[in-house]
Amino acid sequence: MENAAIRIAFPSEKKSLEELQLRASLSNAGDRVAVLGNPDAIELPMEQIDAGDVFVLEISGRTAGFAAVLPRADGDMDLDGLFVEPEMQRRGAGRRLVEHCAQIAQSRGCGALYVVGNPHAERFYLSHGFELVGLFETRFGPAQLMRKPLPAA
After folding, report:
1. What is the pLDDT of residue 140?
2. Contact assessment for residue 103 and residue 68, using Cβ atoms and an 8 Å cutoff
3. 54 - beta bridge partners?
4. pLDDT tens, position by position, 88-125
5. Largest CA distance in the chain
6. Radius of gyration of the chain, Cα coordinates, nearest whole angstrom
7. Half-sphere exposure of 4 (CA within 13 A, CB side)
8. pLDDT, average across residues 35-51
9. pLDDT confidence of 153, banded at 50, 70, 90?
10. Are 69 and 9 in contact (CB under 8 A)?
């Protein structure tokens, strides 16, 4: 992926990143009905942006996707969001963002990166080193709780 860079999101990008989140979510048939029925689910908390926990992937100067992390009470970290522009999906953008978030978690002393994944995202996360560890109840029903072990920093 040439001319690709990941950087921390700017507060001024909140609205445009939420719009990207909406486009990415609506492009997935598994998410479309839930998102249309719950438009408040499309939210990127300003606190995450201000904390430097939202990362934007740019390709040739254009925003291709973003990911957000969230510290867990157990000292590890959650991959709290991963969204890629529909026309950029299946080209390595999601992989780059997962790798970046795993490196961030590792640099902060975390032993694992967790994600609550929809069933249609299971193959993606399994192929990127996550393992199923159980179910997690979300407002949209049960989802897979997955864990990616991280080597010690």
Report:
1. 74
2. no
3. 68
4. 988 899 999 999 999 999 999 999 999 998 878 889 99
5. 42
6. 15
7. 17
8. 87
9. low
10. no
Q: Which residues pair with 145 in a beta bridge?
A: 116, 134
Q: CB of 78 within 8 A of CB of 136?
A: no
Burial (0-12, 13-18, 19+ Cβ within 10 Å), 141: exposed
Task: Supply the pLDDT for residue 138.
Answer: 79
Q: Which two tokens mark 98? A: 């997962």
Range of the domain at 77: 4-149
Give the pLDDT of residue 1: 59
Phi, psi of 141 (to 5 degrees): 115, -175
The count of structural domains within the chain is 1
Q: What is the domain-level CATH number for residue 71?
A: 3.40.630.30
CA distance 44 to 76: 21
The residue that leads in pLDDT, 71 or 38, is 71
